[in-house]
Specification:
14 helices, 483 residues
Length: 483
């Protein structure tokens, strides 16, 4: 692959973003158009605001945060299920030079444990929430008095002072991908990372400011939700609509209902979304949907179930959803989000392999469909712009095409490291800038295929088993399904 410059935004359509030094500047730039965001509250209730109005709310929210004592360089742990509040605080932090760490509102012991561990890892952070009663006493104690209550009255606060000294390599986001049972790892994401990754997605997806509308139900505390479904469309002036995750959990059919009502063209979700959708979907019922505009449904965030993906698109073909809308991809927080993405309108493809011949260092062994030892491995597409990928052995040396190994990434989308964990950073990112993703897979031509997570390999009598393969087999036994 051709070596990459620190940030390559040479395509003419990316010129407005190329002039921005910070994420906050990009928000103000997006407010010059007419596009905006729709917050969906239920099947019948929604609120739409322009990106200009979101910018105004963010500046007012920044004034509220500054009035409470938050200054540039501070860290804010953001905990709210209210998407209007979430987005206002997120962008207020971007405008004020404040680092934001979004965390899901605790709903169980694991959620409280993760939040407590994040607060312990960020001892000077502010905890900002609209539901302080759902924050445990342990978390409150860890906030050291830096606990702020949120409310929509802050949209009417006096405008805040924009941070004048921001640069591309300032950290704007800490993406915590784990932490309920051990030390949390906060991935440091800069404006440069976000600009590079979203520009790659924009070009690969062929997004259109005039014609596209992106619909999302995934949590904005996850990189798939915040980067792909919120930051991306805002930066490039594409219309977006957001369904609260808990609303989707209670009413999964609302996903396709709103895709039909709004004429959504792009959406996304992992295997779980399809599995949860099928819990309520009835093939003998006519929902009256029109999904003909939905040209991309990106599947990622976990190993792709080829059978489940095909079932979803076959079931909804009667409503106009094309099988060509199935768009597999691969990403992780450490590459900001997207590392690979299939081309729009490309057919869904998979390779049938011997499930007992997937150990690192093994060359592929293809099987015929239907063979008792067969497992399908989805094509998740070619590498994104502003990124390089390679497959390596245990010594981090490149291996041949169609040999299973460690997936490594390098480029402007790759994080500079985990917050406060220098030893882990030295192990994960080498001197040449190659990030060890921890995932296993192989390249076939220009396309990547994922076989699993290295640390999750189960070895029994010398044979390697991937947990997702076991889970997919077990999920076929009623009444079990994917978590």
């Amino acid at each position: 692959m051709t070596p990459l410059s620190p940030l390559s935004l040479s395509h003419p359509i990316l010129a407005p973003l190329d002039r921005c030094l910070t994420l906050g500047e990009a928000l103000l730039n997006s407010g010059q158009g007419t596009r905006g965001v729709t917050y969906i509250h239920s099947s019948a209730e929604h609120e739409r605001i322009s990106y200009a109005e979101l910018g105004r709310r963010a500046i007012a929210t920044l004034g509220y945060l500054q009035g409470c004592g938050i200054v540039p360089g501070d860290k804010v742990v953001l905990v709210t299920e209210d998407l209007a509040l979430f987005t206002a605080v997120f962008w207020a932090c971007a405008l004020g030079g404040i680092v934001v760490a979004p965390i899901a509102t605790p709903a169980n012991d694991d959620g409280h444990a993760k939040l407590a561990n994040v607060m312990a890892a960020l001892p000077e952070a502010w905890l900002v929430s609209d539901q302080p009663d759902r924050v445990s006493a342990r978390v409150t104690a860890l906030s050291a008095g830096h606990l702020l209550a949120l409310g929509r009255t802050m949209f009417d606060a006096a405008p805040g002072r924009l941070h004048p000294g921001g640069v591309l390599d300032d950290v704007v986001l800490l993406q915590f991908s784990s932490g309920s049972t051990g030390q949390p790892k906060g991935v440091e994401i800069t404006s440069r990372n976000l600009f590079a990754n979203t520009s790659g997605i924009f070009l690969r997806s062929r997004l259109s400011v005039e014609h596209d509308l992106m619909l999302n139900w995934m949590p904005l505390t996850h990189d798939f939700g915040i980067v792909f479904c919120h930051v991306l469309p805002l930066l490039f002036g594409v219309e977006q609509a957001l369904i609260p995750t808990m609303v989707f959990m209670r009413h999964p059919l609302l996903w396709m209902q709103k895709a039909s009502d709004l004429g959504a063209t792009v959406s996304a979700g992992p295997n779980y979304a399809y599995q949860h959708f099928f819990k309520r979907y009835r093939a003998d019922q006519d929902y009256g949907w029109n999904l003909g505009a939905l040209r991309m449904v990106v599947n990622g965030a976990e190993p792709i179930s080829c059978e489940l993906s095909r079932s979803f698109f076959q079931a909804l073909h009667r409503y106009g959803l094309s099988p060509l809308a199935a768009t597999p991809g691969y990403g992780l927080a450490e590459t900001t989000l997207m590392a690979t993405l299939n081309q729009p309108d490309a057919p869904f493809e998979a390779i049938v392999l011997n499930r007992y011949r997937l150990a690192p260092g093994t060359r592929l062994e293809r099987l015929e469909p239907g063979h008792p030892d067969a497992i399908e491995c989805a094509n998740v597409g070619p590498v994104s712009e502003n990124l390089e990928l390679r497959i390596t052995d245990a010594n981090r040396q490149s291996v041949a095409d169609e040999v299973i190994g460690n997936i490594e990434a390098r480029g402007a989308s790759v994080t500079r490291g985990y917050h406060g964990l220098p030893e882990l950073n030295r192990v994960t990112i080498n001197a040449e800038g190659w990030l060890d993703t921890g995932d296993l897979g192989f390249l076939s031509g220009a396309n990547l295929y994922i076989t699993g997570r290295r640390k999750d390999l189960v070895i029994i009598n010398g044979a390697n088993y991937y947990p997702h393969d076991i889970e997919n087999i077990v999920a076929q036994v009623p009444p079990l399904d994917l978590n």
